[in-house]
Each structure stands twice: as C-alpha cells, then as structure tokens.
Design goal:
Length: 428
C-alpha cells in the first residue's frame, strides 16, 4: 500500500513538472513564436503578389513565346510573384481597355502597340511613371523614336519593349524556277516580279489589308514611298500609293482575300507556297526556321517609290495601368525585362529587335549576325513612326476603311479625297 501511494505521488509530481515545463516553454518561446509566426504569415501575405497582364501576342507566335518565357523566368526568380496573363486579339485590346477603364476593371500591365500609347495615356488608362523612370536612369539608352511613343507632354507613361519594321520575304526556289536573278528595288520591278511569279493559285505577293491596325501598318510604307503622308491623303502621290496596291489586287497578283488577312494569315500563304513574296516583320523569322525548315527563303528591303524606299516603325511598349494596386511590383518586373542580359536573349527568342541602343549594338546577338535579321536592322534606318498625335487610332480606322473600300471596287480618287476630309480635322 505504501509502495502504491509512493508511486502515485511520484507520478503526480512528474505530471505537474511536465505541465509547468510545457507552460514555460510556451510562455517563453510561444509568445515569440506567435509574434514570429504572425509576422511570417503577414509578410507572406504582403509579399505574395499577383500581376495581371493583357496583351495581343497571338498564341504559338514567337512573340507570345518570348512573353511566356519572361513570365516563367521571373516567377522562378521571384517565387512571391504570380502572373495572370490574358491574351486577346489585336483588334479587341483597345476596346477592352476602354471598357475596363469605365468599369474599373483593368489589368496591372498592358502590352500596347506603340502608336496607340499616347492616346490611351491621354484617356487616363496608363499611370504616369516619370518619377520611376528618372530614378531608374536608363531612358537615355533607348532610341528616340520608340521612347517618344511612350511619352506624352514630356512625361513617361511606359517603356518601349521592342522595335520592328516591315520588309519583303521571298521564296528563293520560286525565284530561281522563274528565272529571276535580281531582287526588285523599285515599284516597277516589284510589280514585274510579282507578275512573273503569279501562276494558277499561286500569287506573286501577299500582304494584309485587314480592317485593323495591321492593315494600316502594311499600307503606310507605300504612302511614304510615293512621297505622301497622312496629312496629304487626298494628294496625287497618296492616290498613286493606293493605286499601286489596288492594281496588284485587281490584276490577281495579290489575293482579293487580303482584306481579311492579318499578318499571321499572310505568313501562312507564304509557308504553304501560295504566295512567292510577302510583306512581314522579323518576328516571323523564328517561326519560319522552326516550322518550315524545307523552305528556302530570303529577305530584301521594301521597294522604292517616287520618294525612295521606306518602311514603318513597329513594336510594343510596356505600360502600367493608372489604377493598379501593385504598381511598384509591376515596375520592378518591367525594369527586369529591360536588363540587357535578359532583353537580348529574349528578343532573339521572340524574333524582335531591341529599342535599346546598347543591346542593338551588341554583336553577340542574331541582329548582328543572322543575314535575314540584318536586313531588318538595315530597314529600320528608313522606318518611320506613326507619330500623328493622340487621335491616331481614329485616323487609322479611316485608313483601314479606305483600304477596304478601294480593294472591294470603289473609285480610288473618291475614296482618298473623302478619307482625307475625315482625317484632316484629327491631325495635331
């Protein structure tokens, strides 16, 4: 009985001691752990960021591949950041942005076509990031044309991401079989070559005339080559430019379906050898090399009209929306994409040309080595920006309608003169 009582007392003492020890540990370290755990949870909540991006980079395109690679690499390097990327067709993005502005439902980052940047900045879609850009101190590395497209009234509303221009791709095998030994350099030579290459259901040339910015983008070089501009859209020179394109459609050298084709559709015509030449940009080079290795093709400069050769400056800019709740984190991502050791390899992947002079002059990249990309770098020297003020999107719509009207049979002179009357009040 005594042994039993002794054992019971010892057991009770051990339980009490264990409980006290546990309480002390909880008291000593538990309050600290609560604070630490709470802090860690709070930090985790604060650091976990979702950045929403809208862009028009078509699925399976080289530019979309670059975008996906950028996001993937940044997420790997920054585990606290997650992206929600939404693709929408080129023609739909502008409408969605305006609708989103009215509804208060916008992403954090937008990839915007550079001629549209100023218009949306004026509309209040994009944030003024002047203080961030000036603190960053690298704006001076960019070519003037691309950087000016991201500015309005001396303030920065974004950063250029890439540049491009249009040139002419050609099928070397078709040229050889047709006995063409010299590349065309003038309108007359170009049309003659297109006539020679047109046979059956194979057209000599393919270009886009679709009712979107892509149609305007592909037509404007001819306007400039003729010696006209948007402010002289009703002039004889402007009519010559439209007549040059229309003549090729009317005579069957270019498919009448061009009014429905975007630049990806034009690419398909070239890949399937339904067109011997096409007007397109450098972003198609990686796709051609990977998807059509059997094609033997080359690139040459845009043909010269009365005023010489000319191309068009294209490219996309990064912008942060004015109502973004993660503006700082969005800016950190954009800055990261512009680091030369990120920008260079990514642009090679995407078939794009850099807007930064230091990267453009770096001879390790394909724009300094690849024979096809070098043609586009040369073409950039005569590439003009669409610098027509904040009303440019509306101006472009009138040009698209003019292309559609002429290519479907309306009189060139009438269309160009009436379009000029619509455009002139919109010019700065």
């Amino acid at each position: 009985m005594k042994k039993w009582l002794m054992a019971l007392l010892v057991g009770m003492v051990m339980v009490v001691l264990a409980a006290c020890s546990s309480d002390e540990e909880t008291s000593e370290s538990g309050s600290g752990n609560d604070e630490t755990n709470g802090s860690e949870e709070n930090n985790t909540e604060e650091e976990q960021v979702t950045i929403k991006i809208w862009d028009y980079l078509a699925p399976d395109s080289s530019s979309a591949r670059e975008q996906e690679a950028l996001i993937e690499q940044y997420e790997e390097e920054n585990p606290n950041v997650t992206f929600e990327r939404t693709y929408m067709p080129f023609a739909d993005l502008k409408t969605k942005l305006l609708q989103g502005l009215g509804a208060g439902d916008l992403p954090d980052i937008v990839v915007i076509d550079n001629p549209d940047h100023q218009s949306f900045a004026q509309a209040g879609v994009f944030a003024d990031i002047t203080e961030k850009v000036e603190k960053w101190g690298e704006a001076g590395q960019y070519f003037d044309g691309p950087m000016s497209s991201a500015m309005l009234d001396g303030k920065y509303y974004g950063i250029p991401n890439n540049s491009n221009a249009l040139a002419i791709y050609y099928n070397k095998k078709m040229f050889e079989e047709a006995g063409i030994t010299e590349l065309p350099t003038t309108w007359e030579e170009f049309r003659s070559v297109a006539e020679t290459l047109t046979e059956g259901d194979v057209k000599g040339f393919a270009m886009s005339g679709v009712k979107s910015e892509e149609g305007t983008f592909q037509f404007l070089p001819y306007l400039w080559q003729a010696g006209a501009d948007i402010d002289s859209f009703g002039s004889d020179a402007a009519k010559d430019a439209m007549s040059f394109v229309h003549g090729m459609v009317e005579d069957g050298l270019v498919s009448s379906n061009m009014i429905n084709w975007d630049q990806s559709d034009v690419m398909v015509q070239f890949q399937t050898e339904k067109a011997a030449m096409m007007e397109n940009g450098p972003w198609q080079i990686p796709i051609l090399k990977e998807d059509s290795p059997e094609l033997d093709w080359g690139v040459f400069l845009m043909p010269a009209g009365e005023a010489g050769t000319a191309s068009i400056l294209g490219g996309e800019n990064w912008a942060i929306t004015a109502n973004s709740e993660v503006e700082d984190e969005a800016w950190e991502f954009i800055k990261w994409t512009q680091q030369p050791d990120v920008l260079g390899p990514m642009h090679e992947l995407g078939g794009r040309l850099p807007s930064r002079a230091d990267v453009a002059n770096d001879e390790q990249y394909n724009w300094a080595q690849d024979e096809h990309v070098k043609v586009f770098m040369e073409q950039l020297e005569t590439a003009k920006p669409r610098a027509y003020g904040t009303n440019y999107p509306e101006i472009s719509t009138h040009i698209q309608e003019a292309i559609q009207r002429v290519m479907t049979g309306e009189d060139v002179d009438t269309v160009m003169e009436s379009t000029a009357e619509e455009i002139n009040p919109l010019l700065p």
